[in-house]
Design brief:
This protein is α+β, with helices and mostly antiparallel strands. It is built from 3 helices and 8 strands, in the order E-E-E-E-E-E-E-E-H-H-H. Strand 1 and strand 2 form a beta hairpin. The N terminus is likely disordered.
């Protein structure tokens, strides 16, 4: 099993229950892939896997530490909903279509005749256009994910800096500054009250 940052660099456990595929490492870090019911097709590629490696209770297969990788393939898994933001509803739906000669319509191309070769040109042009459209869509998905990752990295950095400022604050210095500001504020209120009393005193003298 391969994963960026070497999360599964030694051993890992792969288990499949219904439409969920769970990958766990020895530190209990888990990655769960959920796909639509009825669209999952899985296959394991490892010549060293035997029945003795499988857990009869849940069907999990544990890598015994061999060099050969375990490959779990989910074919035609349908759309995936990715949480790309910190708030509820910030979800991006990703649909990766199945691209095969059959889906592209080029599985029965026959160039043995002139007529077949002419039809093959049209079929191949259509297939190229479809693949280009799929690549454009995947590129858009990648751009959105990279943008989301960049924003989340900035948010995490700001949160870390804010937490550091809160934890590193000098309480004695902050309380002294707070007391000073509070005294100045009360003095300002007192002066404003005295200034408001002067017109009233003048009015009282005139009334006498």
């Amino acid at each position: 099993l391969t994963k960026p940052d070497s999360l599964f660099e030694n051993t890992a456990t792969v288990s499949i229950r219904g439409n969920k595929v769970t990958v766990s490492d020895r530190n209990n870090f888990k990655m769960v892939f959920e796909v639509e019911p009825g669209t999952v097709s899985t296959r394991f590629t490892d010549t060293k896997i035997t029945a003795s490696n499988a857990d009869p209770t849940n069907g999990s297969i544990v890598d015994p530490g061999t060099e050969e990788p375990i490959v779990v393939s989910v074919l035609d898994a349908g759309p995936m909903d990715l949480q790309i933001g910190a708030n509820e509803g910030q979800i991006m739906s990703v649909r990766i279509p199945k691209v095969t000669p059959q889906t592209l319509g080029v599985d029965k191309v026959n160039i043995g005749t002139a007529d077949g070769a002419q039809k093959a040109i049209t079929l191949l042009d259509n297939a190229i256009n479809e693949v280009s459209a799929i690549r454009s869509k995947l590129g858009a998905y990648q751009n959105r994910l990279e943008h989301s990752i960049s924003n989340l990295d900035v948010t995490a950095e700001n949160m870390t800096e804010s937490l550091s400022r809160i934890e590193d604050v000098d309480m004695a210095e902050e309380m002294a500054e707070y007391t000073q500001k509070n005294v100045l504020s009360q003095a300002g209120v007192s002066m404003l009250a005295q200034a408001n009393m002067r017109p009233q005193n003048v009015l009282a003298l005139l009334q006498q």
